[in-house]
Amino acid sequence: MYYWLTFVLGIVILTLSISNPFYNLTIKKYLKLAFIFHVIFRVFLLIIGILMVFLGLYFESMVNNV
Predict the structure, then answer these.
(1) Are 56 and 3 in contact (CB under 8 A)?
(2) Positive or negative CA dihedral for 12, 13, 18, 24?
(3) Could you list the pLDDT tens digit for every one of the 66 residues in the chain?
(4) Which residue among 32, 45, 55, 63 is buried most deeply as judged by most CB within 10 Å?
(5) 47: nearest Cα among 16, 23, 26
(6) For 37, how many CA atoms within 13 A lie in the half-sphere containing its CB?
(7) How many other CB atoms are there within 10 angstroms of residue 15's CB atom?
(8) CA 16, CA 3: separation in Å to the nearest integer?
(9) What's the confidence (pLDDT) of residue 18?
């Protein structure tokens, strides 16, 4: 059931990219960048989070297919 770890990790990454308070507490507090770089980083996190969720779905379909 390792695909659950992929789901949870993808959801946490999505939460980082979408939720401003969670992002401020975890990333922005320690990473001092210009505004445009924060925007680019959040878009990158969004894409990585979506890919992680779909990767978890793929793993689940492979496990349940056997």
Answers:
(1) yes
(2) positive
(3) 788 999 999 999 999 999 999 898 888 888 888 999 999 999 999 999 999 999 999 999 988 876
(4) 45
(5) 16
(6) 6
(7) 14
(8) 20
(9) 94
Residue where the block lists tokens 């789901």:
7
| Cβ contact 45:13 at 8 Å | yes
Distance CA 38, CA 52 (A): 21
Of 4, 24, 16, the closest CA to residue 44 belongs to 16
* Tokens of residue 2, six digits: 């390792």
Domain boundaries, the chain: 3-65
Quickly tell me which residue has 């349940």 as its tokens. Answer: 64
